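Changelog-linked ticket: coenzyme A example.
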Amino acid sequence: MKVAIYPGTFDPITYGHIDIIERALKIVDKLVIAVLVNGNKKPLFSVEERINMIKDSIINLKNVEVDSFNGLLVDYAKMKNANIIVRGLRAVTDFEYELQLAQTNRQMNDNIDTVFLLTGLKYSYISSSTVKEVASYNGDISKFVTENVAKELKAKYIENIIK
Ligand code: COA
């Protein structure tokens, strides 16, 4: 059974991420979407909120688990019996960073390979940061995220304004 991990911050999940998830499911038996708990970024949403938005966005997909992880990705992958890490590439600018991550991971565990999938052209410009920026100015984000995520983003920015 081919088990793969799709790790990320997912703050929040976008159509670009969903595109990668759907593509990955065509080549693996099981995909674990793993939300990083303590990364360098300061996420807008809590881990629980991010997990719930992911679950809601992939409700129709089978063979997917949504989980969170702390610490090294290779250790988490081993714990999950996964020997594939899936990462999406949107443009050539993603490549250098991804190569560094993949080679570092390989140095730590040579049994785990990183598989890169190209994000559909339609979503190649999306990032969670740009979606948050548009949402913070009350712009239309319906082309970037699901209806539910758009609602959550709106609520978060209203909540922050009130605070
Ligand atoms: N569609 C849309 N957006 C995409 C995307 C796609 N297909 N692929 C990446 N992105 C965006 C994300 O939205 C995110 O945008 P943001 O920076 O505006 O938030 C950005 O690209 C990259 O983020 P993400 O894919 O979530 O990766 P990350 O860099 O936040 O996290 C981990 C990378 C989790 C894989 C890495 O930090 C990790 O493994 N950490 C654990 C510690 C470890 O083992 N480190 C490895 C040794 S150095």
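Closing comment: Example verified and attached. Residues 7-9, 11, 14, 16-17, 20, 36, 39, 41, 72-73, 88, 90, 101, 104-105, 119, 123, 126-129 surround coenzyme A (CB under 6 Å). The beta strands are 3-8, 30-36, 64-69, 84-89, 113-118.
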